[in-house]
Amino acid sequence: MRHAVDELAWLSGDTRALLGTWLDPDAPPTPSALHAPRGRLRGRVPVHDDEATRSLTGLGLALWRQTGGRGPWESPEGQGALRELEASLGLLGAEAARGALGLLPPLAPRAHKSTASSGSALREFLDRDRREVRDRALEALLAPALRIPLGLPTHEYRARVLEALRYLSEQGLGSLGYPRAFGGADDPAAAVAVFETLAFGDLSVVVKFGVQFGLFGGSVLQLGTARHHKAYLGSIARLELPGCYAMSETGHGSNVRDVETTATYDAITDQLVVHTPHDGAAKNYIGNAAEHGLLAAVFARLIVADEDHGVHAVLVPIRDAQRRVQPGVRIEACGLKTGLNGVDNGRIWFDRVRVPRTNLLDRFAAIGENGRYHSDIPNPGRRFFRMLRTLVIGRVSVASASVSAAKVGLTIAIRYAHRRRQFGPEGAIEVPILDYPVLQRELMPRLATTVGLQLAVRTLQARLMDPAESDSAELEVAAAGLKAYASESCVTTLQASREACGGQGYLADSRFASLKADTDAFTTFEGANLVLYQLVAKGLLTRFREEMGDLTLRGAVRYLAERAETALTELNPVVTRRTDEEHLLDADFHHAALAYREARLLRSAALRIRARLDEGMDSFQAVVECQDHLIYLAKAHVEHRILREFDGPIARAPTPGLSELLRTTSALHALSCIERDRGWFLESGYLEPGKARAIRGQVGRLCAELRDQAHVLVDGFGIPDELLPEIARRESFDSGL
Amino acid sequence: MRHAVDELAWLSGDTRALLGTWLDPDAPPTPSALHAPRGRLRGRVPVHDDEATRSLTGLGLALWRQTGGRGPWESPEGQGALRELEASLGLLGAEAARGALGLLPPLAPRAHKSTASSGSALREFLDRDRREVRDRALEALLAPALRIPLGLPTHEYRARVLEALRYLSEQGLGSLGYPRAFGGADDPAAAVAVFETLAFGDLSVVVKFGVQFGLFGGSVLQLGTARHHKAYLGSIARLELPGCYAMSETGHGSNVRDVETTATYDAITDQLVVHTPHDGAAKNYIGNAAEHGLLAAVFARLIVADEDHGVHAVLVPIRDAQRRVQPGVRIEACGLKTGLNGVDNGRIWFDRVRVPRTNLLDRFAAIGENGRYHSDIPNPGRRFFRMLRTLVIGRVSVASASVSAAKVGLTIAIRYAHRRRQFGPEGAIEVPILDYPVLQRELMPRLATTVGLQLAVRTLQARLMDPAESDSAELEVAAAGLKAYASESCVTTLQASREACGGQGYLADSRFASLKADTDAFTTFEGANLVLYQLVAKGLLTRFREEMGDLTLRGAVRYLAERAETALTELNPVVTRRTDEEHLLDADFHHAALAYREARLLRSAALRIRARLDEGMDSFQAVVECQDHLIYLAKAHVEHRILREFDGPIARAPTPGLSELLRTTSALHALSCIERDRGWFLESGYLEPGKARAIRGQVGRLCAELRDQAHVLVDGFGIPDELLPEIARRESFDSGL
């Protein structure tokens, strides 16, 4: 520490000397020596200054502003660096700041406990955004067209799903994201909200809905220009033109940048020649391909005058109006799948299929009438990134559907386990199985995280509306991370929920059979989860490098952080040893812990990769060697993101009861993340064993607490009884009370 | 420590004084002071004494025998107490004993690395037990009768499954466990071996096979007497008499002791009246009930002269030869299930159905001609336990089938991931995805644990043959634990394997759809896993209490253990800090760590429950409050058990190459268990953070090492190509090399 202080050239000699005396472990500063500055401090900072009470950095900046505020801390970068330093030191910023100011902590969840809440009030609050379209989607789910029986033969099932889509299109629910001129509402967030709501029902309908209106229609909208919109969007919205989003290839599942299908410009005929160069380049797993699709947005390498300009999208007719496959096109059905058999996935091969030049979706790059390629985005990587926008919306949609499916599973399991009685004390009535701590531990943390995921996907849905985000790499990172985490969480949540229902959960009527089989695909499509997590980690590393450039100020802060980190955190008894309930339930502790983990994993990942590059290793290999570290980092990032999503709703909840319920939920999400990863926290010295044990105890207590409120949360999900199996309907649930 | 030594009254004054001087931390014994006894010791113990080099207890006993061997250590109980003390102290017994004797450690896996092994040699070795019937079962799997296509409508599927059973019965594979007089081989282990092998194929066939020949036929065999055997076993074996094992009820899934169906003896007509008293007491989920079953072994409370004698089994005809349901019997099909739709599960209600008194399966309890109830087993709990024998065999069978299904999944995933290439360095050929560390971490530890589970279920199969085990509570504990752990492990292994295959794994052709859907039931039937884990924990606690009675000797040892434990383990740098590869890969370290965890969790669970009982809490509530602790203990016990299963095969493997491969596999099982649970090990002070990190590194290295040998292990599973999807056939795998 002393060495680190010496390195900070900008400290005055006096300050340095004072710090030096304070750092002598054999002669710590006396209470009165510390009292004097604390007194000065308390008098000067307004306690309602939100920033000052939220972190030590905020407190420091507030003081610095009062003294005139000049110098390095003026810039947002400088302040950002300080915040990062604070996070990486693992100090409980808010706690320490409040302590310095003599303020009381915000009340811990346990403090007000009894206020009852209702599920309908919760739903009012959580579903307030796009409530009207959500209700319309719920209503549509109950229409006969969408009540598809279980166990239909594949062909019949697909016909029913197509019929369901037609109904949804008639209700105007397919085109909400399109411009008003084409029957839409110009509201992509509403489109995702509908997608999310429909995911309470048959997931084949949802996926085919997403393929048609989201991926296919979305690529015409996002990648095409006025002429394409005019020619196609109306008939896409009316389902007169079913179509495909033909991106994935057999040989390159999640590696979309390397697709091998070609679209070669033939200047003589002014046409594009779309071709599958070899079997591995066939488009694979394409929804709408096996039966219904007429037109496909085909992602292919665009070759103009022998130059490969990278991947672009071209519209290629694959069937005529009578559904006869076009010449030069070969289509094969994918066959029976684990789930989603209402969707007609297929493989497509193109044998030099010619389409007009104008079929190129040319918003970001075009071939002029002169036959020349031009683009306003000169960087091919950046251009490709813009073209993947539809995929980003797709990922937000898959995350949303994963959350909905998990909510259905949890609703069924929690209501069932509340009614189902098994075993009990000698001679007494059997006990509802939800009273067993071990079942609470299976269900309650997943319930808490699912609520957090719901908040997180809603935030992302709203960001899709923000024009400032249209080119946002951060949005891509957020969408990738939430898609991976939500789909993974959905799979494990449904498994736990199914097992909680025992044999009842194994009957197809209970819905778990299709829920599990259908959502299993979510871990793979729109990008395999392990690939997406790496994308998240790379995004974080890029930002980290940008922020951690070579500015002298940052260099100093970074140096200090690296040197002091271990010593400080291990020595700071506030962080590592406090086991009292007030501290363990304090949201500041939760935020600090998850922020610390993310920051530290990010820095160590950067250092490990840097070390390998410095040794001359190629960057691919360097990343591969740190792969599990990167995935760990990505998950830590998402868990932290989910936690942050609770803050706004807790602050804005309309009643103290709801606010308290969300706070308990947030605390359980955070503490169960910390508990699950306590190995890392113990290794890094952030927790002492006693504190880790105390956290385990708190998780158990929060599980029991949330068990009593679980019915409010699942009521708040707002899933209509008609969509639930008998064992989980509200009436029967209520009568079981 | 000093205090503990003082308490050991049997130490001589001199010894006590000497120990006292050694225990002074400021004046530790000099090397030469320690050298003298070590020299004496080394001269006296024969280094080929296996026991003496395996633990400090063994070493002590060897010395004690040389000095005449009298006193408290003579009894097996005394020696057991010492061993337990050693385990709970967390000392690395073998390492320390070898150190004391100046012996070198056994070679770590890394030491001989290159020896190649072949899958066929591995299979020769692993499948040597009951090889002939295993081969017959494999051959049967390839017969047309068992090649059931995917996606059949339910009724057709069930007919095909029945046909498959008929074929298996014709091959004599159904009755291997029955006496020779009824066409069998009197070899229950062979019956389970066949069941295990058949589980490479369609799992509906396997489950229906188990219902007919195992549960139904087994209950006639185990619970009936000569007259039942003669009347039924032959026709059961020939599938002329399909039947049901009607135990579970709607209201009491896994709580079989509390079934409510009654069988009331009517002395006037000399009949039993079988009755379903209310809707919740209907028999539920009964295999063979919905379509094919003619006779059912019904578990009901036997009431004779108004006295309830608890649960007994009665044979009740449910259909006549034309499959018409009998009067008084009502049967309802369970309907479509998540999986296993080739099995016709149903619900059965009995409305005062009368059967002759002699239909009672009366091996353990009978109603005499005089109308009186009598049993040679007066204790009702013990009697019921004997009657559940069929269920114990059933659990061993489910564990075996779980292992087989996991092996199929791993074979597909590993072969696919070895061939599938995705991403790669700039401009170079893409990399096989199995080369990615993150995929290795998903698959290799599961592969290692699956191999260990295979060894463990084989041991259990053999124990089923041992007459001495017919009443063994330990066998019940082992069967329950392995059933729960293997089925849970199967579910997660199949999920990871499916995801490793990406979209390919989602196609039904890849087999994952049915593998996942079918095995999902394994977590619930024959006892829900959470219930079985508690049964394991209770079994361990019972044994612990029996062993830890109030014998003075044991009291002393126990006292010492409790007092010294924490201090010793935390102070013992051998255990907590060594991070060198030789130590981390040493099997002794693995055994010590898993033994320590189990012993400590067991003792703390006992103390926690005891404390609650002492406070006057009722025992049900006391157990409920410690439920997650108990489940943790049960899993720790099973993981330790699996590890121990490797020892014999490593020692007996026919070639050094195989022995080495098994040692690597064993090390990865152990270290990945420790890594996954490093939070606990760090909390308990058994590991220091640096060692935990070193273990993580070793797991990564072992994953990479096993990746290179993975094809040998999966070849060793011996799954015929015909049962695998194209992406996983051996030929294509080899050509991909």
Could you describe the 3D structure shown?
The structure is a homodimer of 737-residue chains. The first copy, chain A, contains 29 helices and 13 strands. Chain A is an alpha+beta fold and 737 residues long. In chain A, strands 1, 2, 3, 5, 6 and 9 form a six-stranded mixed β-sheet that branches. In chain A, strands 4-8-7 form a three-stranded antiparallel β-sheet, with no helix packed on it. In chain A, strands 10-11 form a two-stranded antiparallel sheet. In chain A, strand 10 (365-367) and strand 11 form a beta hairpin. In chain A, helix 14 runs antiparallel to helix 15 (437-463), helix 14 (389-419) packs across helix 28 and helix 25 (627-652) runs antiparallel to helix 26. The N and C termini of chain A lie far apart (60 Å). At the A-B interface, helix 15, helix 16, helix 17, helix 18 and helix 24 of A face helix 15, helix 16, helix 17, helix 18 and helix 24 of B.
